[in-house]
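notes to self, project folder thing:

trying the whole complex as one job this time. last attempt i did each chain seperately and stitching them together was a nightmare. two parts in total, labels are on each line so i dont mix them up again. if this works i'll redo the older ones the same way
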Amino acid sequence: MSKPNPADRLYSKDHEWLKYHGDGTATIGITDYAQEMLTDIVFVELPAIEKEVRQGETMAVVESVKSVSDVYAPASGKVIATNKILEETPELINKDAFGEGWIAKIKLTEPVELKTLLSAADYEKLIKEEKH
Amino acid sequence: MNLKKTPLYEKHVLLNAKIIDFGGWAMPVQYSNVIEEHHATRAAAALFDICHMGELEVKGPRAFDLLQFALTRDLADQRPGQVKLSALLNEKGGIIDDLTVYKKSDNSFMLVTNATTREADFSQISGILRQKRYDCVLEDISEKTGKLDIQGPRAQEILRQSITADLQNLPYYHFMEVKIMDIPSIISRSGYTGEDGFEVYAPAKQISIIWDRLMEAGKPFGLKPAGMGARDTLRLEAGMMLNGQDMTRETTPLEVPYGWLIDWKKDFIGKPALEELEKTGSEKKLVGFEMIGRGISRHGYKVFDGKKEIGVVTSGTFSPTLNKAIGLAFLDADFSAPETLIDIAIRATMAQAKIVKLPFYKRKK
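result (full assembly):
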Protein backbone atom coordinates (compact mmCIF):
# COMPACT_ATOMS: atom_id res chain seq x y z
CA MET A 1 0.00 0.00 0.00
CA SER A 2 1.28 3.45 -0.87
CA LYS A 3 1.64 6.10 1.78
CA PRO A 4 -1.08 8.78 1.88
CA ASN A 5 -0.54 11.71 -0.47
CA PRO A 6 0.13 14.82 1.66
CA ALA A 7 -2.48 17.55 1.25
CA ASP A 8 0.15 20.32 1.40
CA ARG A 9 1.16 19.89 -2.24
CA LEU A 10 -0.05 19.45 -5.82
CA TYR A 11 0.17 16.48 -8.17
CA SER A 12 0.59 15.79 -11.88
CA LYS A 13 -1.12 13.03 -13.81
CA ASP A 14 2.34 11.61 -14.47
CA HIS A 15 2.84 11.00 -10.73
CA GLU A 16 5.06 13.92 -9.79
CA TRP A 17 4.40 16.05 -6.73
CA LEU A 18 5.10 19.77 -6.36
CA LYS A 19 5.25 21.64 -3.08
CA TYR A 20 4.89 25.40 -3.50
CA HIS A 21 6.75 27.42 -0.88
CA GLY A 22 4.84 30.69 -1.35
CA ASP A 23 7.95 32.58 -2.49
CA GLY A 24 7.97 31.68 -6.17
CA THR A 25 9.91 28.44 -5.59
CA ALA A 26 8.75 24.84 -5.39
CA THR A 27 10.17 21.41 -4.56
CA ILE A 28 9.51 18.50 -6.92
CA GLY A 29 9.57 14.74 -6.51
CA ILE A 30 7.75 11.59 -7.58
CA THR A 31 4.86 10.17 -5.58
CA ASP A 32 4.96 7.16 -3.33
CA TYR A 33 2.62 5.40 -5.75
CA ALA A 34 5.15 6.04 -8.55
CA GLN A 35 8.09 4.65 -6.57
CA GLU A 36 6.00 1.61 -5.71
CA MET A 37 5.32 0.96 -9.39
CA LEU A 38 9.01 1.41 -10.26
CA THR A 39 10.28 -0.67 -7.30
CA ASP A 40 14.01 -0.78 -6.47
CA ILE A 41 15.34 2.51 -7.85
CA VAL A 42 19.05 2.11 -8.60
CA PHE A 43 19.91 5.26 -10.55
CA VAL A 44 18.78 8.88 -10.72
CA GLU A 45 19.86 11.40 -13.35
CA LEU A 46 19.37 14.89 -11.92
CA PRO A 47 18.94 18.08 -13.98
CA ALA A 48 21.73 20.65 -14.14
CA ILE A 49 21.42 23.71 -11.90
CA GLU A 50 20.11 26.71 -13.89
CA LYS A 51 18.47 24.38 -16.41
CA GLU A 52 15.22 25.81 -17.73
CA VAL A 53 12.48 23.18 -17.62
CA ARG A 54 9.06 23.40 -19.20
CA GLN A 55 5.89 21.87 -17.87
CA GLY A 56 5.47 18.31 -19.14
CA GLU A 57 9.05 17.98 -20.39
CA THR A 58 11.62 15.53 -19.04
CA MET A 59 13.61 17.03 -16.16
CA ALA A 60 15.14 13.92 -14.56
CA VAL A 61 15.37 10.18 -15.12
CA VAL A 62 14.86 7.41 -12.56
CA GLU A 63 15.87 3.84 -13.29
CA SER A 64 15.00 0.58 -11.60
CA VAL A 65 16.83 -2.64 -12.41
CA LYS A 66 14.47 -3.27 -15.31
CA SER A 67 13.15 0.13 -16.36
CA VAL A 68 14.08 3.66 -17.35
CA SER A 69 11.45 6.32 -16.52
CA ASP A 70 11.33 10.03 -17.26
CA VAL A 71 10.37 12.47 -14.55
CA TYR A 72 8.37 15.30 -16.14
CA ALA A 73 8.43 18.85 -14.82
CA PRO A 74 5.01 19.43 -13.21
CA ALA A 75 5.51 23.18 -13.85
CA SER A 76 7.91 25.37 -15.83
CA GLY A 77 10.86 26.96 -14.09
CA LYS A 78 14.58 27.22 -13.55
CA VAL A 79 16.33 24.55 -11.49
CA ILE A 80 17.84 26.15 -8.36
CA ALA A 81 18.77 23.04 -6.36
CA THR A 82 18.95 19.25 -6.79
CA ASN A 83 19.02 16.48 -4.24
CA LYS A 84 22.61 15.37 -4.82
CA ILE A 85 22.35 12.63 -2.17
CA LEU A 86 20.23 10.67 -4.67
CA GLU A 87 23.31 10.13 -6.83
CA GLU A 88 24.79 7.97 -4.07
CA THR A 89 21.59 6.66 -2.50
CA PRO A 90 18.83 6.56 -5.15
CA GLU A 91 16.85 4.17 -2.91
CA LEU A 92 15.93 7.20 -0.78
CA ILE A 93 13.09 7.69 -3.27
CA ASN A 94 11.76 4.24 -2.39
CA LYS A 95 12.09 4.93 1.32
CA ASP A 96 10.74 8.48 1.47
CA ALA A 97 9.35 9.72 -1.85
CA PHE A 98 7.57 12.69 -0.29
CA GLY A 99 10.45 13.73 1.98
CA GLU A 100 14.15 12.93 1.71
CA GLY A 101 13.62 11.51 -1.76
CA TRP A 102 12.83 14.92 -3.30
CA ILE A 103 14.45 15.48 -6.70
CA ALA A 104 14.81 19.20 -7.43
CA LYS A 105 13.80 22.73 -6.47
CA ILE A 106 12.76 25.17 -9.15
CA LYS A 107 11.97 28.85 -9.39
CA LEU A 108 8.63 28.97 -11.16
CA THR A 109 8.46 30.93 -14.37
CA GLU A 110 4.75 30.30 -15.07
CA PRO A 111 3.06 30.15 -11.65
CA VAL A 112 -0.33 30.12 -13.38
CA GLU A 113 0.41 26.52 -14.39
CA LEU A 114 -0.14 25.42 -10.78
CA LYS A 115 -3.86 25.63 -11.51
CA THR A 116 -3.51 22.77 -13.97
CA LEU A 117 -2.22 20.40 -11.26
CA LEU A 118 -4.33 18.07 -9.11
CA SER A 119 -5.15 18.26 -5.40
CA ALA A 120 -4.23 15.30 -3.20
CA ALA A 121 -7.87 14.15 -3.26
CA ASP A 122 -8.07 14.31 -7.08
CA TYR A 123 -4.75 12.53 -7.42
CA GLU A 124 -6.01 9.82 -5.09
CA LYS A 125 -8.97 9.29 -7.45
CA LEU A 126 -6.66 9.09 -10.45
CA ILE A 127 -4.50 6.32 -9.00
CA LYS A 128 -7.57 4.39 -7.87
CA GLU A 129 -8.74 4.40 -11.49
CA GLU A 130 -5.30 3.33 -12.71
CA LYS A 131 -5.30 0.36 -10.36
CA HIS A 132 -8.48 -0.96 -12.01
CA MET B 1 -2.85 -9.86 -28.71
CA ASN B 2 -3.57 -12.99 -26.71
CA LEU B 3 -0.60 -13.94 -24.59
CA LYS B 4 0.21 -17.60 -24.05
CA LYS B 5 -0.03 -18.74 -20.45
CA THR B 6 2.01 -21.38 -18.69
CA PRO B 7 0.29 -23.99 -16.46
CA LEU B 8 1.51 -21.89 -13.50
CA TYR B 9 -0.05 -18.60 -14.56
CA GLU B 10 -2.74 -18.69 -11.86
CA LYS B 11 -0.07 -19.24 -9.21
CA HIS B 12 1.69 -16.05 -10.27
CA VAL B 13 -1.53 -14.05 -10.17
CA LEU B 14 -2.29 -15.32 -6.65
CA LEU B 15 1.24 -14.35 -5.61
CA ASN B 16 0.58 -10.80 -6.86
CA ALA B 17 3.27 -11.00 -9.50
CA LYS B 18 3.66 -8.24 -12.04
CA ILE B 19 2.91 -9.94 -15.37
CA ILE B 20 4.49 -8.80 -18.62
CA ASP B 21 4.52 -9.81 -22.27
CA PHE B 22 7.68 -11.89 -22.53
CA GLY B 23 8.09 -12.90 -26.16
CA GLY B 24 4.36 -13.59 -26.47
CA TRP B 25 4.07 -15.26 -23.07
CA ALA B 26 2.37 -13.80 -19.99
CA MET B 27 5.25 -14.22 -17.56
CA PRO B 28 5.97 -12.88 -14.06
CA VAL B 29 8.69 -10.21 -14.24
CA GLN B 30 8.76 -9.91 -10.46
CA TYR B 31 6.81 -10.99 -7.38
CA SER B 32 8.20 -8.59 -4.75
CA ASN B 33 11.11 -6.82 -6.39
CA VAL B 34 13.94 -7.84 -8.66
CA ILE B 35 16.78 -7.10 -6.23
CA GLU B 36 15.22 -9.13 -3.40
CA GLU B 37 14.59 -12.08 -5.69
CA HIS B 38 18.11 -11.80 -7.08
CA HIS B 39 19.71 -11.83 -3.62
CA ALA B 40 17.47 -14.72 -2.50
CA THR B 41 18.83 -16.79 -5.40
CA ARG B 42 22.47 -16.07 -4.50
CA ALA B 43 21.99 -16.45 -0.72
CA ALA B 44 19.35 -19.20 -0.41
CA ALA B 45 17.19 -20.39 -3.30
CA ALA B 46 14.60 -19.27 -5.82
CA LEU B 47 11.95 -20.99 -7.90
CA PHE B 48 11.36 -19.94 -11.52
CA ASP B 49 8.54 -20.84 -13.91
CA ILE B 50 10.32 -21.79 -17.12
CA CYS B 51 7.42 -23.61 -18.80
CA HIS B 52 7.66 -21.23 -21.77
CA MET B 53 10.86 -22.85 -23.00
CA GLY B 54 10.66 -25.53 -25.66
CA GLU B 55 11.42 -29.25 -25.56
CA LEU B 56 11.94 -31.45 -28.60
CA GLU B 57 12.32 -35.20 -28.53
CA VAL B 58 14.43 -37.21 -30.97
CA LYS B 59 13.99 -40.97 -30.91
CA GLY B 60 15.04 -43.86 -33.10
CA PRO B 61 18.08 -45.86 -34.25
CA ARG B 62 19.66 -42.83 -36.04
CA ALA B 63 18.74 -40.13 -33.51
CA PHE B 64 22.40 -39.62 -32.71
CA ASP B 65 23.35 -39.21 -36.39
CA LEU B 66 20.69 -36.54 -36.88
CA LEU B 67 21.86 -34.48 -33.91
CA GLN B 68 25.54 -34.99 -34.62
CA PHE B 69 24.99 -33.42 -38.05
CA ALA B 70 22.49 -30.75 -36.97
CA LEU B 71 24.46 -29.41 -34.00
CA THR B 72 27.95 -27.90 -33.67
CA ARG B 73 29.03 -29.81 -30.59
CA ASP B 74 30.56 -33.27 -30.74
CA LEU B 75 28.05 -35.65 -29.15
CA ALA B 76 30.07 -38.84 -29.76
CA ASP B 77 31.47 -38.89 -26.22
CA GLN B 78 28.18 -37.92 -24.54
CA ARG B 79 27.10 -40.48 -21.97
CA PRO B 80 23.47 -41.29 -21.13
CA GLY B 81 22.51 -38.94 -18.31
CA GLN B 82 24.77 -36.17 -19.55
CA VAL B 83 23.66 -32.71 -20.75
CA LYS B 84 25.58 -30.77 -23.40
CA LEU B 85 25.12 -27.19 -24.49
CA SER B 86 25.33 -26.81 -28.25
CA ALA B 87 24.60 -24.38 -31.05
CA LEU B 88 22.21 -24.94 -33.95
CA LEU B 89 23.34 -22.98 -37.00
CA ASN B 90 21.91 -22.09 -40.37
CA GLU B 91 23.86 -22.65 -43.60
CA LYS B 92 25.53 -19.23 -43.24
CA GLY B 93 26.90 -20.12 -39.81
CA GLY B 94 24.41 -17.84 -38.02
CA ILE B 95 23.06 -18.98 -34.67
CA ILE B 96 19.46 -20.20 -34.80
CA ASP B 97 19.59 -21.31 -31.18
CA ASP B 98 21.82 -22.27 -28.30
CA LEU B 99 20.18 -25.33 -26.80
CA THR B 100 20.89 -28.17 -24.40
CA VAL B 101 21.01 -31.82 -25.43
CA TYR B 102 19.85 -34.43 -22.92
CA LYS B 103 20.97 -37.94 -23.82
CA LYS B 104 18.61 -40.50 -22.30
CA SER B 105 20.02 -43.47 -24.25
CA ASP B 106 21.80 -44.11 -27.55
CA ASN B 107 18.51 -43.69 -29.41
CA SER B 108 16.61 -41.19 -27.26
CA PHE B 109 17.40 -37.50 -26.76
CA MET B 110 15.62 -34.39 -25.50
CA LEU B 111 16.56 -30.91 -26.75
CA VAL B 112 15.72 -27.90 -24.60
CA THR B 113 15.29 -24.80 -26.75
CA ASN B 114 14.75 -21.13 -26.10
CA ALA B 115 11.10 -20.06 -26.00
CA THR B 116 11.24 -17.86 -29.08
CA THR B 117 13.32 -20.21 -31.22
CA ARG B 118 11.44 -23.45 -30.65
CA GLU B 119 9.60 -23.37 -33.99
CA ALA B 120 12.71 -22.35 -35.94
CA ASP B 121 14.67 -25.16 -34.29
CA PHE B 122 11.98 -27.67 -35.15
CA SER B 123 11.79 -26.58 -38.76
CA GLN B 124 15.59 -26.58 -39.22
CA ILE B 125 16.07 -30.04 -37.67
CA SER B 126 13.06 -31.57 -39.43
CA GLY B 127 14.42 -30.14 -42.70
CA ILE B 128 17.68 -32.00 -42.16
CA LEU B 129 15.77 -35.12 -41.21
CA ARG B 130 13.74 -35.06 -44.44
CA GLN B 131 16.83 -34.48 -46.53
CA LYS B 132 19.02 -37.12 -44.89
CA ARG B 133 16.24 -39.64 -44.25
CA TYR B 134 17.72 -40.75 -40.94
CA ASP B 135 15.66 -43.46 -39.26
CA CYS B 136 14.32 -41.46 -36.29
CA VAL B 137 11.40 -39.30 -35.23
CA LEU B 138 11.43 -35.65 -34.14
CA GLU B 139 8.57 -34.50 -31.92
CA ASP B 140 7.81 -31.15 -30.31
CA ILE B 141 6.80 -32.04 -26.74
CA SER B 142 6.79 -28.44 -25.41
CA GLU B 143 3.03 -28.25 -24.85
CA LYS B 144 2.95 -31.31 -22.67
CA THR B 145 6.16 -30.57 -20.82
CA GLY B 146 6.45 -28.27 -17.81
CA LYS B 147 9.72 -26.85 -16.54
CA LEU B 148 10.80 -25.30 -13.26
CA ASP B 149 14.22 -24.04 -12.26
CA ILE B 150 15.20 -24.19 -8.61
CA GLN B 151 18.44 -22.31 -8.19
CA GLY B 152 20.68 -21.29 -5.33
CA PRO B 153 22.94 -22.78 -2.65
CA ARG B 154 19.98 -24.30 -0.74
CA ALA B 155 18.28 -25.77 -3.84
CA GLN B 156 19.65 -29.25 -3.26
CA GLU B 157 18.43 -29.44 0.34
CA ILE B 158 14.97 -28.29 -0.72
CA LEU B 159 14.68 -30.82 -3.54
CA ARG B 160 15.84 -33.57 -1.19
CA GLN B 161 12.70 -33.02 0.88
CA SER B 162 10.73 -34.43 -2.05
CA ILE B 163 12.89 -37.13 -3.60
CA THR B 164 15.05 -39.97 -2.35
CA ALA B 165 17.53 -39.96 -5.24
CA ASP B 166 21.14 -39.05 -4.58
CA LEU B 167 21.37 -35.45 -5.74
CA GLN B 168 24.61 -34.92 -3.84
CA ASN B 169 26.54 -37.00 -6.36
CA LEU B 170 24.81 -35.70 -9.47
CA PRO B 171 27.57 -33.82 -11.35
CA TYR B 172 27.05 -30.46 -13.03
CA TYR B 173 25.39 -30.79 -16.46
CA HIS B 174 24.03 -34.26 -15.68
CA PHE B 175 20.47 -35.41 -15.10
CA MET B 176 18.40 -38.19 -13.54
CA GLU B 177 14.94 -39.53 -14.31
CA VAL B 178 13.13 -39.64 -10.97
CA LYS B 179 9.70 -39.37 -9.40
CA ILE B 180 8.69 -36.28 -7.47
CA MET B 181 5.50 -37.05 -5.53
CA ASP B 182 4.93 -39.97 -7.94
CA ILE B 183 5.22 -37.66 -10.94
CA PRO B 184 7.75 -38.84 -13.55
CA SER B 185 10.33 -36.06 -13.76
CA ILE B 186 13.77 -35.19 -15.02
CA ILE B 187 16.11 -33.35 -12.69
CA SER B 188 19.17 -31.79 -14.22
CA ARG B 189 21.95 -30.06 -12.32
CA SER B 190 22.18 -26.94 -14.44
CA GLY B 191 20.68 -23.50 -14.79
CA TYR B 192 20.94 -19.91 -15.94
CA THR B 193 21.95 -18.08 -12.78
CA GLY B 194 25.58 -18.92 -12.00
CA GLU B 195 24.53 -20.73 -8.81
CA ASP B 196 24.29 -24.39 -7.98
CA GLY B 197 20.80 -25.48 -8.91
CA PHE B 198 18.49 -27.72 -10.87
CA GLU B 199 16.17 -27.66 -13.84
CA VAL B 200 13.10 -29.84 -13.33
CA TYR B 201 10.95 -31.24 -16.16
CA ALA B 202 7.59 -32.90 -15.58
CA PRO B 203 4.26 -33.29 -17.41
CA ALA B 204 2.66 -29.84 -17.87
CA LYS B 205 -0.57 -31.07 -16.27
CA GLN B 206 1.24 -31.92 -13.04
CA ILE B 207 3.90 -29.23 -12.85
CA SER B 208 1.80 -27.11 -10.48
CA ILE B 209 1.82 -29.94 -7.91
CA ILE B 210 5.61 -29.82 -7.93
CA TRP B 211 5.60 -26.01 -7.79
CA ASP B 212 3.39 -26.08 -4.67
CA ARG B 213 5.47 -28.79 -3.06
CA LEU B 214 8.77 -26.94 -3.62
CA MET B 215 7.33 -23.61 -2.46
CA GLU B 216 6.18 -25.28 0.76
CA ALA B 217 9.35 -27.33 1.33
CA GLY B 218 11.51 -24.30 0.56
CA LYS B 219 10.01 -21.98 3.15
CA PRO B 220 12.35 -22.91 6.02
CA PHE B 221 15.31 -22.52 3.64
CA GLY B 222 14.41 -19.01 2.50
CA LEU B 223 13.16 -20.01 -0.97
CA LYS B 224 11.38 -17.27 -2.91
CA PRO B 225 9.58 -17.34 -6.24
CA ALA B 226 11.60 -15.27 -8.71
CA GLY B 227 10.60 -13.68 -12.00
CA MET B 228 12.11 -12.95 -15.37
CA GLY B 229 13.68 -9.73 -14.00
CA ALA B 230 15.93 -11.55 -11.55
CA ARG B 231 16.58 -14.30 -14.10
CA ASP B 232 18.01 -11.64 -16.40
CA THR B 233 20.27 -9.94 -13.81
CA LEU B 234 21.47 -13.34 -12.55
CA ARG B 235 22.38 -14.69 -15.99
CA LEU B 236 24.10 -11.47 -16.98
CA GLU B 237 26.27 -11.43 -13.84
CA ALA B 238 27.19 -15.04 -14.66
CA GLY B 239 28.24 -13.88 -18.15
CA MET B 240 25.55 -15.95 -19.89
CA MET B 241 24.10 -14.71 -23.16
CA LEU B 242 20.46 -14.28 -24.05
CA ASN B 243 19.40 -15.60 -27.44
CA GLY B 244 17.67 -13.00 -29.61
CA GLN B 245 19.34 -10.20 -27.69
CA ASP B 246 23.09 -10.91 -27.35
CA MET B 247 23.05 -13.02 -30.50
CA THR B 248 20.76 -13.25 -33.51
CA ARG B 249 20.69 -15.33 -36.67
CA GLU B 250 23.23 -12.87 -38.09
CA THR B 251 25.71 -13.71 -35.32
CA THR B 252 28.16 -16.60 -35.63
CA PRO B 253 29.60 -18.59 -32.71
CA LEU B 254 33.02 -17.13 -33.61
CA GLU B 255 31.85 -13.64 -32.65
CA VAL B 256 30.41 -14.54 -29.25
CA PRO B 257 32.04 -16.60 -26.48
CA TYR B 258 30.74 -19.82 -28.07
CA GLY B 259 33.82 -20.94 -29.99
CA TRP B 260 34.08 -23.86 -27.56
CA LEU B 261 30.76 -25.23 -28.84
CA ILE B 262 32.24 -25.93 -32.25
CA ASP B 263 33.80 -29.27 -33.05
CA TRP B 264 35.84 -28.81 -36.20
CA LYS B 265 36.57 -32.53 -36.55
CA LYS B 266 33.03 -33.44 -37.57
CA ASP B 267 30.63 -32.24 -40.24
CA PHE B 268 27.67 -30.11 -39.24
CA ILE B 269 25.29 -27.60 -40.80
CA GLY B 270 27.02 -24.23 -41.10
CA LYS B 271 30.56 -25.62 -40.93
CA PRO B 272 31.70 -24.58 -44.45
CA ALA B 273 30.57 -21.00 -43.77
CA LEU B 274 32.35 -20.94 -40.41
CA GLU B 275 35.56 -22.26 -41.98
CA GLU B 276 35.52 -19.34 -44.42
CA LEU B 277 34.98 -16.87 -41.59
CA GLU B 278 37.67 -18.50 -39.48
CA LYS B 279 40.22 -17.74 -42.23
CA THR B 280 39.45 -14.03 -42.31
CA GLY B 281 38.98 -13.68 -38.55
CA SER B 282 35.88 -12.09 -37.07
CA GLU B 283 35.49 -8.34 -37.25
CA LYS B 284 33.07 -8.19 -34.35
CA LYS B 285 33.20 -9.57 -30.83
CA LEU B 286 30.74 -9.79 -27.98
CA VAL B 287 32.45 -8.64 -24.79
CA GLY B 288 31.63 -7.77 -21.20
CA PHE B 289 31.98 -4.24 -19.87
CA GLU B 290 31.46 -2.40 -16.62
CA MET B 291 30.58 1.25 -16.27
CA ILE B 292 33.13 3.70 -14.95
CA GLY B 293 31.03 6.80 -15.62
CA ARG B 294 27.61 7.36 -14.13
CA GLY B 295 24.59 5.63 -15.54
CA ILE B 296 23.25 2.27 -16.61
CA SER B 297 23.76 1.15 -20.20
CA ARG B 298 20.82 -0.67 -21.72
CA HIS B 299 20.13 -2.86 -24.75
CA GLY B 300 20.50 -0.84 -27.95
CA TYR B 301 22.67 2.00 -26.59
CA LYS B 302 25.47 2.93 -29.00
CA VAL B 303 29.15 2.48 -28.20
CA PHE B 304 31.85 4.91 -29.32
CA ASP B 305 35.62 5.35 -29.39
CA GLY B 306 35.75 9.14 -29.25
CA LYS B 307 33.46 10.12 -32.12
CA LYS B 308 33.66 6.83 -34.00
CA GLU B 309 30.76 4.44 -33.51
CA ILE B 310 32.22 0.99 -32.75
CA GLY B 311 29.25 -1.09 -31.68
CA VAL B 312 26.14 -1.51 -29.60
CA VAL B 313 25.15 -2.65 -26.11
CA THR B 314 23.26 -5.95 -26.34
CA SER B 315 22.48 -6.40 -22.62
CA GLY B 316 22.93 -3.96 -19.77
CA THR B 317 21.69 -3.70 -16.24
CA PHE B 318 22.49 -2.74 -12.70
CA SER B 319 24.18 -5.70 -11.02
CA PRO B 320 22.67 -6.25 -7.56
CA THR B 321 25.55 -8.49 -6.43
CA LEU B 322 28.38 -6.23 -7.59
CA ASN B 323 26.46 -3.02 -6.95
CA LYS B 324 27.50 -1.49 -10.27
CA ALA B 325 26.31 -1.25 -13.85
CA ILE B 326 27.47 -4.04 -16.19
CA GLY B 327 26.66 -5.26 -19.66
CA LEU B 328 27.55 -7.02 -22.88
CA ALA B 329 28.38 -5.17 -26.08
CA PHE B 330 28.91 -6.24 -29.69
CA LEU B 331 31.99 -4.29 -30.79
CA ASP B 332 34.65 -3.95 -33.46
CA ALA B 333 37.13 -6.68 -32.52
CA ASP B 334 39.92 -4.06 -32.13
CA PHE B 335 38.26 -2.88 -28.94
CA SER B 336 37.61 -6.25 -27.35
CA ALA B 337 40.71 -6.61 -25.13
CA PRO B 338 40.15 -6.38 -21.37
CA GLU B 339 40.82 -2.92 -19.88
CA THR B 340 40.05 -1.16 -23.19
CA LEU B 341 38.11 2.03 -22.52
CA ILE B 342 34.94 2.73 -24.48
CA ASP B 343 32.24 5.41 -24.38
CA ILE B 344 28.55 4.61 -24.25
CA ALA B 345 25.89 7.12 -25.23
CA ILE B 346 23.37 7.30 -22.40
CA ARG B 347 20.67 9.72 -23.49
CA ALA B 348 22.40 13.10 -23.99
CA THR B 349 25.72 12.22 -22.34
CA MET B 350 28.69 9.96 -22.98
CA ALA B 351 29.67 7.68 -20.11
CA GLN B 352 32.94 5.80 -19.91
CA ALA B 353 33.11 2.02 -19.52
CA LYS B 354 35.86 -0.56 -19.67
CA ILE B 355 36.03 -4.02 -21.17
CA VAL B 356 36.28 -6.78 -18.56
CA LYS B 357 36.67 -10.55 -18.65
CA LEU B 358 33.55 -12.69 -18.31
CA PRO B 359 31.92 -13.75 -16.08
CA PHE B 360 31.27 -10.73 -13.87
CA TYR B 361 30.36 -13.03 -11.01
CA LYS B 362 31.60 -16.49 -10.07
CA ARG B 363 30.22 -18.33 -7.08
CA LYS B 364 32.55 -19.68 -4.42
CA LYS B 365 32.70 -23.46 -4.54
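what i see at first glance: The mean pLDDT of chain A is 96.
need to look closer tmrw
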